[in-house]
Amino acid sequence: MKNFVIKGNACWNENIEQIHCEPNAYLVCEDGVCAGVFHELPERYADLPLTDFGDKLILPGMTDLHVHAPQFAFRGLGMDMELMDWLKTYAFPEEAKYKDLVYADRAYAQFADQLRRSATTRAAVFATLHVPATELLMEKMEASGLISYVGKVNMDRNGPDYLCEKSAQESLEATERWICDTKSKFERTHPILTPRFIPSCTDELMHGIRRLVEKYDLPVQSHLSENFSEIEFVQSLCRDSKFYGDAYDRYGLFGGDHRCIMAHCVHSGEAEIELMRKNGVFAAHSPLSNANLSSGAAPVGKLFREFVNVGLASDIAAGESENLFRSISAAIRASKLRWRMLDQEIYPLTVSQAFYIATVGGGKFFGKVGSFDPGYEFDAIVVDDATIPHPQELDLQQRLERTLYLADDRHLCAKYVAGTRLF
Questions:
Q1: pTM of the entire structure?
Q2: What is the three-state SS of 265-334?
């Protein structure tokens, strides 16, 4: 049923700087799309089925723009390490287990179930290089009711023997078979090309991935400027490139004629940020991960100022939680530390800005997603903030702010994705 009305206290971003709160509002869904938010229900919608959520908060669904499904199993471990050591010690050994479909089935079932119960309604997901396990993950994401992009990872160098494809040709052939098998198989789950990052992919592989972008009109996701040692590694491999993003661009894998997500962008400089803006690249901001692996604090305020697309990301498992409420508050805190300790010209994120990147900012990758303005796909979560105790009277703006800092999946009582109610 994709034609209905729900009633409650609606909160969403009018723009990046302002949140609109409408008490006792009627939200109308027609064919999976928001038809508007009304203080009084128009007569033309009077016959639609109505669910009254009383005094609860109704918020747009959130987009997790960068999450590693196979790493869900070891979230909260290895947080004393930096990126490259963490990959070798935790990420690579765990991802190798997904050659075993029995293990993959158990692990991916837990991941998909947890994401389904969270505030996330859309996600861009890394799998592993194993095609059968990646297709299994896509099946579980489809069954979850979420809308997602899932990527089979490409890596043919600088990885352990047990987790490295034998050649660029083998990687590309496996990737193309996977694309052909899955591109039209699912309604809500779509393939996305996923070179892990430049250090793990030879020139031949990167150029081949570009050909697949052109042939199948697919988006791309990868990592960018996360860690100083990683950046130095890329420079040693791509000596002619001016900066990390330029190396991707020389392969034709940095936006422009295709949608592109680059995770982290912690140490992106002026030229890299300008190229991101020019090419329409999405920065997936991962504040929990960036703190846990001592990567730094991304210049999110500067990305806004330069009109770069920014979305929010959990980056499980370097980020320890899929709970995007936690990532929202972490993004605000990280920006305050960066402002205080590093760059006083880049002001800290406000609550409105952080809410925006969790909803509209990342939602843009999927189209008109993340708002209750007319014409946006109807993604919504209903939050019972009465279960977060407080003794004083609060207005809606204050209730929303507390929710963004304190809520988790225990406070969700309903969830809609493109007009379909999941629970």
A1: 0.97
A2: CCCCCHHHHHHHHHHCCEEEECHHHHHHCCCCCCCHHHHHHCCCEEEECCCCCCCCCCCHHHHHHHHHHH
